[in-house]
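About this split. The held-out portion is used to measure sequence recovery: a designer receives only the structure tokens and must propose an amino acid at every position. Recovery is the fraction of positions where the proposal matches the reference. Here is one held-out target exactly as it appears in the evaluation file.
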């Protein structure tokens, strides 16, 4: 394997960036169909979506962990191990899926009992319950997607993702509004649409995995896998802890700024939506690094590690520089678009968006470094560093600047930028200094 070219990086990264964009759009589609049912329905769905987003962040290890292990095993031409990785992942999905299905009603009832609003409870209980029933289907797709990505095929999972999005629109129309004579199910119809769309997408990606020679060789269900489970769990847990606790830090940030009032929360919501879209390219480059690095190590090409990671960092930084520059220039327009009636919110959102654009430059490098260290198997360091930067840097500084020093929501986002800088510097030191010295 030679030093990876920018064309090869783009071929791996951009299908994943598009797929992540489709996933975000898919979530907005559900809200668009549910919107006419009123504020309580939107609030109920928002609670369910926040819970599910947190849950799937903690379970991201099924997808990224599979990707790393498959990349390493395939590069070493170890087909039995790669097959065992897939079987181990699917076995664990079945176990977790059974638990989710069994506990779905209890979890849903408890969540909306805490919410304490009867209308939200009416709309939300069945919606969340069906979403939890869908979780094993989604996790099953995570493992199969990891198989394709680990084999450097990032385009095929995109087909399934696009189909899911299109079917979700169709099923939402059928079940939420009762289109074509189907029973009108209201808010819970959106969850049923999501479940059926994801089930169809899963069947498609399984069919492609069984049909294509690239992946078919790793689909031997009789391959023993129990010895692979400890390594799989260790990697998946570390990845899940990092992504899950990162999202929790952002949720706690909302608690910090809540005393600032509704305007600050509105500014944060606008900025968060912008951040989610601006963050997508960096996610694609993270996964690219997590695919390439274990393959280099498996082929005993450690001498290519730093040049390869540096090249991916440069491309990630370049793409984010372009997108962040555009957002920075048009920040006032974006703020006004999301808050056309409240000029103060629009102005503050423009300022926080500019801060996020600056922080994204550091995140573009951090994400690649995180993918590279994950590929090196250094996931425990990422977890510990994430805890320190998120809970001992970001949240305390956000509270200090936003509340104690009185800088409001702008001060909170200064803490966010310093969080991005801390993550980038810490992982750069870990990879380029400590790893080089080893």
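Reference sequence for scoring:
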């Amino acid at each position: 394997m030679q030093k990876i070219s920018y064309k090869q990086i783009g071929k791996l990264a951009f299908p994943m960036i598009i797929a992540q964009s489709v996933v975000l759009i898919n979530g907005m589609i559900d809200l668009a169909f549910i919107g006419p049912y009123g504020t309580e329905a939107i609030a109920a769905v928002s609670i369910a979506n926040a819970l599910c987003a947190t849950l799937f962040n903690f379970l991201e290890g099924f997808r990224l962990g599979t990707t790393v292990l498959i990349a390493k095993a395939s590069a070493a031409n170890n087909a039995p191990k790669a097959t065992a990785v897939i079987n181990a992942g699917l076995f664990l999905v079945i176990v977790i899926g059974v638990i989710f299905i069994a506990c779905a009603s209890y979890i849903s009832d408890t969540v909306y009992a805490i919410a304490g609003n009867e209308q939200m409870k009416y709309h939300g209980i069945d919606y969340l319950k069906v979403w939890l029933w869908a979780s094993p289907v989604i996790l099953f797709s995570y493992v199969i997607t990891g198989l394709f990505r680990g084999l450097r095929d990032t385009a095929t999972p995109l087909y399934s993702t696009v189909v899911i999005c299109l079917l979700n629109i169709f099923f939402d129309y059928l079940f939420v509004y009762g289109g074509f004579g189907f029973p009108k199910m209201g808010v819970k119809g959106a969850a049923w649409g999501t479940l059926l769309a994801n089930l169809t997408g899963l069947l498609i990606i399984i069919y492609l995995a069984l049909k294509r020679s690239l992946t078919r060789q790793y689909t031997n269900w009789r391959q023993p896998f129990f010895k692979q489970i400890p390594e799989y769990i260790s990697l998946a847990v570390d990845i899940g802890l990092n992504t899950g606790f990162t999202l929790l830090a952002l949720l706690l940030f909302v608690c910090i700024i809540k005393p600032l009032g509704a305007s600050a929360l509105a500014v944060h919501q606008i900025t968060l939506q912008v951040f989610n879209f601006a963050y997508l390219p960096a996610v694609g480059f993270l996964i690219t690094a997590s695919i390439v690095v274990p393959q280099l190590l498996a082929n005993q090409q450690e001498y290519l590690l730093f040049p390869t990671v540096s090249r991916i960092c440069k491309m990630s930084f370049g793409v984010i520089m372009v997108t962040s520059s555009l957002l920075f220039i048009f920040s006032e327009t974006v703020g006004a678009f999301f808050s056309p009636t409240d000029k103060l919110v629009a102005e503050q959102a423009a300022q926080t968006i500019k801060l996020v654009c600056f922080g994204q430059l550091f995140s573009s490098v951090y994400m690649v470094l995180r993918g590279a260290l994950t590929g090196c198997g250094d996931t425990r360091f990422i977890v510990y560093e994430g805890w320190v930067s998120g809970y001992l840097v970001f949240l305390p500084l956000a509270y200090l600047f936003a509340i104690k020093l009185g800088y409001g929501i702008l001060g909170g986002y200064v803490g966010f930028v310093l969080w991005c800088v801390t993550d980038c510097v810490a992982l750069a030191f870990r990879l380029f200094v400590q790893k080089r010295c080893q």
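Annotator remark: The chain has two domains: 1-224, 237-438.
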